[in-house]
Automatic annotation (TrEMBL):
Gene that this sequence comes from: lon
Function of the protein: ATP-dependent serine protease that mediates the selective degradation of mutant and abnormal proteins as well as certain short-lived regulatory proteins. Required for cellular homeostasis and for survival from DNA damage and developmental changes induced by stress. Degrades polypeptides processively to yield small peptide fragments that are 5 to 10 amino acids long. Binds to DNA in a double-stranded, site-specific manner.
Family of this protein: Belongs to the peptidase S16 family.
GO molecular function terms listed in the Swiss-Prot or TrEMBL record: serine-type endopeptidase activity
Catalyzed chemical reaction(s): Hydrolysis of proteins in presence of ATP
Subunit structure: Homohexamer. Organized in a ring with a central cavity.
Lon N-terminal domain boundaries: 42-237
Main location class: cytoplasm
Source taxon at top rank: Bacteria
Ranges of residues in domain Lon proteolytic: 624-806
InterPro entries the record matches: AAA+_ATPase (IPR003593), ATPase_AAA_core (IPR003959), Lon_bac (IPR027543), Lon_bac/euk-typ (IPR004815), Lon_lid (IPR054594), Lon_proteolytic (IPR008269), Lon_Prtase (IPR027065), Lon_prtase_N (IPR003111)
Organism: Marinomonas primoryensis
Top-level enzyme category: hydrolase
Protein name: Lon protease
Amino acid sequence: MSDDEQYSDLQEENSVMAEEESVVITDPKGLALPDDVLPETLFILPISSRPFFPAQVQPVMVDAEQWEDTLERIAEHPQAVVGLVYADKEGKKSPSVDEFRSIGCVARVHKAEKQNDKLTFLAQGVKRFEVIEWLSETAPYLARVRYINDVKSNDDESKAYSIAILDAIKQLIRLNPLFSEDLRQYLGRFSFNESGLLADFAASITSADAEELYDVLATIPVHARMHLALTLLRKELEIARLQNEISAEVNDKISKHQRDFFLKEQLKIIQKELGISKDDRTSDVETFKARLEGKTLPKSVNDKIQDELHKLSILEAGSPEYGVTRNYLDWSTSLPWGVHSKDNLDIKLAREVLESHHAGLGDIKDRIVEFLALGAHRGEMGGSILLLVGPPGVGKTSIGKSIAESLNRKFYRFSLGGMRDEAEIKGHRRTYIGALPGKFVQALKDVEVENPVIMLDEIDKVGSSFQGDPASSLLEALDPEQNSEFLDHYLDMRIDLSKALFICTANQLDTIPSPLLDRMDVIRLSGYIGDEKLAIAKQHLWPKLLKKNKLLKKQLNITDAALRHIIEHYAREAGVRGLDKLLQKILRKSVVELMTGEKSHINVGVKDVETLLGMPYFRPEKTLQGVGVVTGLAWTSMGGATLPIEANRVHELTRGLKLTGKLGDVMKESAEIAYSYVFSHAKSYQKAPEFFDKSLVHLHVPEGATPKDGPSAGITMATALLSLARNEPVRRGLAMTGELTLTGQVLAVGGIREKLIAAKRSKITEIILPEPNRRDFEELPESVKEGMTVHFAERFPDVEKIVFNRTNGHLH
């Protein structure tokens, strides 16, 4: 079919539409006034939303107070026409004439009505005009105008544009039927032969912005105007298609959800009628009742749970109270009421488990086996709180796991470090949003038995705040006299914690509240000696690293000598965590060589350690010798260390004591006590009693950047002062530790094991210890005592005889 035939068919089809369906809006006196009788001067109304087109019939709303007089004057005129000009008022009621556009549309005014403060009239667009001159530049605006007539064109290009515009309008009507009413109005007044008016109509029905629409209104050539209108129509068509796609997608989702909902509801009703299933509420009640089967509930607990089950059965599933009650029953029925695991009371097996998991710590293992044996004899392990105290990395947490495994009990661990909220222990009140039970209830729910091993890590780091004091709340949970009736705030029911075995860990005892510490059985882990670290590295750390990283021993091996070198010169801390990190570093660097193909097998020896780890962290400790110089023994968080103390005479102008070496308060007091003791007993010990009367003595502890404190250097300082006064050096290879009183008593000190290990590392074989520490020495492993000559002193004269007179004293 040719373009002319298609155009004729469209004309005929639309003429029929106009005759059958359109509503023609006419003036009582006629359809429209002839062009030649339009007035040369027009009242101008500004319209700010979008320009008005000759092909439009549309209501216009204006402010009644401002334009009522103007519209009355227009209505009195025979033509009853007004000029509608686009002006961006930007919120102003009366724009200036400079803000009006030059091209406007003259319109007939029909059916003006006033509603409240607005005046509405029906505007029937007639033709374009151009403002020639403003006769009144303020409201009411009056202007002299020139009318612009469209040039009718029936050429092929106009027909093609008309066909394209009509085709786009048809598609738009199919996508959005609302546009059909605008088309009916247009067909009632014009035909499709008027190409210019068709372009105006096409532009007027789009949702383009005001500037784009004004470009169409101001374009006088018909072909150019039709091109612009067709472009706007195409954009509108794309928008309508996209809107339909979005609507269809949303409707599909909604329909699917509605369909699924209705089908599920129908299925529930059908299943309920057939007795196949119950509703959610009935299902919840039956689930909670099923959980209680096989459990032994105390009467008070059973009564409370039954009350809550009854409440749940009558509540509506959608009510907030239903959710609260359901959560409460979920927790309360999940607890292992009366459910216990069977303990393994085989002490030999317990010993084997501890030996297989840990090297060294023989005294600790003995203490744990004793505890387990007592529980086995009694028939139950509850009612005790073990507190494992020691520096980081000595295996406190892993010992707790080993105890649980040896007893065949469930294990639950949580850390108390930094805990500040009391509700973490005893739970929140049930009335709070997001309320939860405390940690002990959560532990019982997870392990599903009433007699687990519960480990409380970092109990020395519990804090306190305005939210409560968790340490005080722990008393009720841990105290064997109270925890059989532990009250959790959330459940508000008495819970029996007496069957659980509690194991706590701490790095120090100072920050643990004394009422809590009083209820614990303290086991101290002082750390490992070199041989124990070597065994741990060989049996546990190195094989574990190889297995974790999928390496074989034939690919990567490390010698015992290399391990010992690392332990002595790189990892002297009490635990083995630092040693583990160093071994990881060696493994990483070795794997690089294996992966790059440089080597297929690596054997790490002593010579390779410095290449892999760098220079040693610890230098060999050299014992200082001379008059006024004595080697002491000290305990640090890294283990034992030798501590040389030097005394020197500064001048004879005055007497006194000067202390240096970054000493703590306790150590300063020890120095003053030693000075006072030696000063007051000068006649008994020295050849020149007047030495201290006219001497300023300087007492120094080397490595002044390192803080030093503790009550264990009293006899060492007194010996250094005595050596200075007598001008007699202390014998070589001798070290000592012990506190001194003003009356010369030698008091016990701690850390004997670590101090002796430090002496052996420095090749010191003769030691002076306080007599009260004899028992501590006797309990040490033979590997520590081997090759050591130990003297025990009760009073300082014993020390003086051993040091200067070379007598055997109380020789071990």
